[in-house]
Amino acid sequence: MRKSRKALNYVKARLNYGGRSGRRLMPIHDARPLIESLSLDVEGFLLKRSTTGISNFYDPEQVRSIYYPEAEQIVKEATGADRVVAFEHDIRCEPKARQGLSGAREPVKVVHDDYTQKSSPDRVWLYLPDEASRLLQSRYEVINVWRPIHGPVQESPIAVCAAGSIRQEDVIPTEEGVKHEVYLFNFNSRHRWFYFPQMQSDEVLLFKCFDSLDDGRARLTAHSAFDDPTSPADARPRESIEVRTVAFFASRI
Predict the structure, then answer these.
(1) Considering the domain boundaries, does residue 10 fall inside one?
(2) CB within 10 Å: which end of the chain, N or C, has fewer?
(3) What is the pTM of this model?
(4) What are the φ/ψ torsions at residue 195 (nearest 5 degrees)?
(5) Number of folded domains in the chain?
(6) Cα→Cα distances 97→40, 76, 92, 144, 192, Å
């Protein structure tokens, strides 16, 4: 990162860690001054501008037919992958989720990572069963494509933790209460948290959930929604979509 941590603005907010760590007050730094230097292989996340042709994110058919290909192209351009497959998505909106509307879910205010060394290949077997044996022989990454449906995001923004600040002993694999194994995290004061204030609907946050290549580069991204102390009292509830993709790197796929 080109700018020092001290040079960045930040808010202080409580993040919910796993295990016995509980809620911890952490500085969450404004990553916008770092946009040009961020990398999926170093920090584990980056921000891109990208418009979309979809008119209704709450229509699953539109999302799959229009937005999935858009997300695949975004990831392909960002990673240089030979092939990208979008395989599932979630819409987040707390009021709609509480009313049971449109299949929406609440923002997740727990420090976690969506896929693990176990559940990542399981997704490939689930969605690409005829090709999984061959595809899994080469490097692959699971990348989350996170976009606001409306902007700016002023309530429950998403925070991401720089991969280099996470140690192996911080990572807690768990299958309790979830549909597949995910990572939770023990608190560590070394963790460096970032967010992109006031995200707009033409911005997408890419963050790496898993990388099969273990060579010192970022392999996961701890992330969490959080209560921003600077949110206006009348802030519009956050609405967002996250599409999970798997990117394959091979000469023949």
Answers:
(1) no
(2) C
(3) 0.95
(4) -150, 170
(5) 1
(6) 31, 31, 8, 21, 30
